[in-house]
């Protein structure tokens, strides 16, 4: 029987894809990495290529790992000038949101929160305002968006806000999968 006619071939492919997906998630947040011991190549091997990467004047690096587009977590990995992992932080939380202040540049916001979801970036011409949004989990384990509004001319933060992530025909706010 040819593989094209074998109904088990599709099932094997599905199982293989599922196994690869699960194995790829093993180090999703870098849980297998050890600060002070793990090296930059080990961070990248575990967590993948970062979405954004900054090299600091002292030789240290910051790597952004958004886990979206529907994910509610972004991780920042900080690697010292010696090439060893210093720490990994989850950044889509109230403490990090509180660091975003009026007047900050877009790059400063990216360094705190990582990149926003591309599908949640919008420009409003009537207000000359660019809005970036991040899907996150609030203190009640419900999904919500954190929004940063930028002046369309200067690119600096005007204000921030939050709103519930309402989905489905009933407009239900999904729970987070913690």
Model description:
- By secondary structure, the protein is of the alpha+beta class.
- The chain has two domains: 28-90, Beta-lactamase Inhibitory Protein, Chain:B, domain 1 (2-Layer Sandwich); 92-178, 2-Layer Sandwich (Beta-lactamase Inhibitory Protein, Chain:B, domain 1), CATH 3.30.1450.
- It is 21% helix and 30% strand.
- It is built from four helices and eight strands, in the order ααββββααββββ.
- It has helices at 7-24, 40-47, 94-97, 106-113; strands at 52-55, 61-67, 73-79, 85-90, 121-124, 129-137, 143-151, 157-164.
- The strands form two sheets. The protein has a four-stranded antiparallel beta sheet, covered by helices on one side. It has a four-stranded antiparallel beta sheet with strand order 5-6-7-8, with no helix packed on it.
- A hairpin with a 5-residue loop joins β3 (73-79) and β4 (85-90).
- The longest helix has 18 residues, at 7-24.
- It is globular, with a radius of gyration of 20 Å.
- Residues 1-27 have low confidence and may be disordered.
């Amino acid at each position: 029987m040819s593989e094209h006619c074998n109904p088990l071939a599709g099932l094997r492919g599905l199982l293989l894809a599922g196994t690869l997906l699960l194995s790829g998630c093993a180090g999703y947040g870098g849980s297998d990495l050890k600060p002070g011991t793990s090296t930059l190549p080990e961070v990248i091997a575990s967590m993948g290529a970062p979405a954004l990467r900054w090299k600091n004047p002292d030789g240290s690096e910051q790597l952004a790992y958004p886990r979206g587009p529907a994910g509610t977590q972004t991780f920042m990995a900080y690697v010292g000038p010696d090439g060893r992992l210093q720490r990994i932080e989850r950044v889509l939380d109230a403490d990090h949101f509180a660091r975003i202040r009026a007047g900050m540049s877009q790059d400063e916001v990216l360094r705190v929160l990582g990149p926003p979801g591309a599908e949640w970036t919008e420009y409003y011409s009537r207000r000359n305002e660019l809005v970036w949004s991040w899907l996150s989990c609030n203190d009640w384990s419900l999904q919500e968006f954190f929004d940063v509004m930028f002046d369309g001319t200067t690119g600096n933060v005007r204000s921030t806000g939050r709103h519930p992530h309402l989905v489905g025909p009933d407009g239900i706010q999904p729970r987070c999968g913690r």
